[in-house]
Amino acid sequence: MAKKKQSLFECQHCGEQSIKWLGKCPSCGGWDSFVELNQIEQESLKYLSKQTTNDKVKAMPITEIKEDDLVRFSSNNVEFDLVMGGGIVPGSLTLIGGSPGVGKSTLLLKIAGNLAKTEKKVLYVSGEESAGQIKLRATRLDANEENLYLLAEISLEAIMNEMLRESYEVVIIDSIQTMYSDKLTSAPGSVTQVREITFELMRKAKESQIAIFIIGHITKDGSIAGPRVLEHMVDTVLYFEGEQSKEIRMLRGFKNRFGSTSEIGIFEMTSNGLESAKNISNRFFTNTKEQSGSCLTVTAEGSRALILEVQALVSHSNNPNPKRSATGFDTNRLNMLLALLEKKLDLPLNNYDVFVNISGGIKIKESSCDLAVIASIISSFRNRPISRESVLIGEVSLTGEIKDVFSMETRLREAISCGIKKAIISTKPKGIVGIRCFEIDEVSKMIELF
């Protein structure tokens, strides 16, 4: 009697596998997400695992291995090149994610048009739109070029045949969740399909030195839909950030094997698509009249310094559990700073609702804005405005000590270029002229400013 094949179940949210069906995924917490894989899909998984091992490969001393020469070419978009680490690397596989309508397809079609103008053959594959729809957008983006080829197809085998027919240098897949392979019987967008297609595209990129860009959908929590292994297989992972109601969009790198992940690209949505934001110095703050609960700070995003406006509202609450809310700032850190103010300055904030907002829709990823958040809270609590010609920069510790932050010289030079006259910091760097620096080392001394 033939032995029965063992069943295998896979989570369609994260790719977790189990030999039995589970109602809740232990990895991602998704409910009713496990689907049984048939025999063909199980064989495909074994095939993919075998591709990573080869008995004929022999290890070599690292001293005998030659370094790869990274030859980049420009996308003719300053902000995009900045996030990519200086340009596009041939043979790289890049994953771009973001919420619907944020501008992923618009940006890559514009980049495709730019590359086609430089005599590079580009293939734009779309499984979500017809070629006529893409043509309409290309006309608006001024991307109608002879070297830009469109293919409305969702079959991986058909796409591979087209890549063999022409010597393309750049290929754009929009999107990975719509593609399917004839080798598998599962539906497009399933974990098995996404994993198989991404592996084949990765192998094609490395063999043919084609730069491939993949657009990926995101889930409700903001992560790329599909298995987490998808982000590990690609060379670069980029995320679009920004609200559709605002013109500014940000492209942030979360993984880059060929460059830094600290840089961000800032774009502006115009009638001609996403354009590099030429002047962003005054996009996140306004030089209006002085108001209580508002102050300026300078945050660093990679090699770029941005001046932001921190807004706070402190209002009396009759609720035994007052509200604490933050937009663009970590709520847990806000609670820590409020506890510090109650301890060091004896402010009765346990009877007040506190709301903090970072204007411009940007999210602060560092702690250099702690001093500005504290100042805006005190300003709103005492109803005393802060000068619009001042910036506050500094990290606040649990002991109330104000610490230095990195790239202080770059931040101050950006403030000077925007007409800021005063800076409240912990230590003034050498060689800075054109701005008055007031040094404070403890939060308790903040009370002297109000």
How many extended strands?
21
Give me the CATH superfamily of the largest domain.
P-loop containing nucleotide triphosphate hydrolases
Q: Bin the helical content.
A: 25-40%
The CATH architecture of the largest domain can be given as 3-Layer(aba) Sandwich
User: In order across it, which strands form the biggest sheet?
Assistant: 6-5-7-8-4-9-10-11-12
Short description:
This protein is α/β, with parallel strands linked by helices and 450 residues long. Helices cover 25% and strands 24% of the residues.
Descriptive report:
The chain has 450 residues and is of the alpha/beta class. The protein is 25% helix and 24% strand. It folds into 3 domains: 9-36, no CATH class; 72-276, P-loop containing nucleotide triphosphate hydrolases (Rossmann fold, 3-Layer(aba) Sandwich); 294-449, Ribosomal Protein S5, domain 2. It contains 10 helices and 21 strands. It has a 9-stranded mixed beta sheet with strand order 6-5-7-8-4-9-10-11-12. A hairpin with a 2-residue loop joins strand 13 (294-301) and strand 14.
